[in-house]
Amino acid sequence: MSIVSPGFSGRRRSADDRLPPGQYLTHDFPVLSAGPTQRVTTAQWEFTITTEAGQAHRWSWSDLMSLTSEEITTDIHCVTKWSKLGTTWRGVPLDTFFEDIDTAADYALAYSYGGYTTNLPLDDLLDNRSWITWEFEGEPLTPEHGGPVRLLVPHLYFWKSAKWIRGLRLAFEDEPGFWESVGYHEYGDPWREQRYQGD
């Protein structure tokens, strides 16, 4: 199955129409991380969603590979002002993981191997808006880019697409993650230039 994110099909638009304010186009894929590159094997990797009631739902690498995956073509935008257009990924929508999860939570804190965290409204993870991904441009994700598995939330600045994703903790109240706790915007909409608190 292949999908194209809404807004990137139909009438062909110029690159400028696809660049949020203040962004520049790059053909590279810059490597930026909050800490050292994590080296997690597929045998070690596990993904856990913990509900607000403390119930944990877990998936191994083999569990992930058994789920129906999609090819996603989308633009990505980094808070450091670069944008990369028409990137292609393979992954499983977060909706799939939530099919059997009973939650009334409004927020999620994504956490990674290595200790990185980032907060997101739960609505931004559902309705085919985010994925758990393991391929980029037809190749396995390298550790530098978050492999073996990273979160992909392309409608927000790319720091929300946590590398080396390990799990989500659901909650009724928002809890700032790593960058949000040092002054980055709580939400991070590139089209509204929500880079820092107060933007």
From TrEMBL:
InterPro entries linked to this entry: OxRdtase_Mopterin-bd_dom, OxRdtase_Mopterin-bd_sf
CDD domains per the UniProt record, alphabetical: arch_bact_SO_family_Moco (cd02109)
Region (Disordered) location: 1-22
Listed Pfam families: Oxidored_molyb
SUPFAM superfamilies from the UniProt entry: Oxidoreductase molybdopterin-binding domain
UniProt domain Oxidoreductase molybdopterin-binding: residue ranges: 35-179
Name listed for the protein in its UniProt record: Molybdopterin-binding protein
Origin species: Virgisporangium aurantiacum
Lineage of the organism: Bacteria, Bacillati, Actinomycetota, Actinomycetes, Micromonosporales
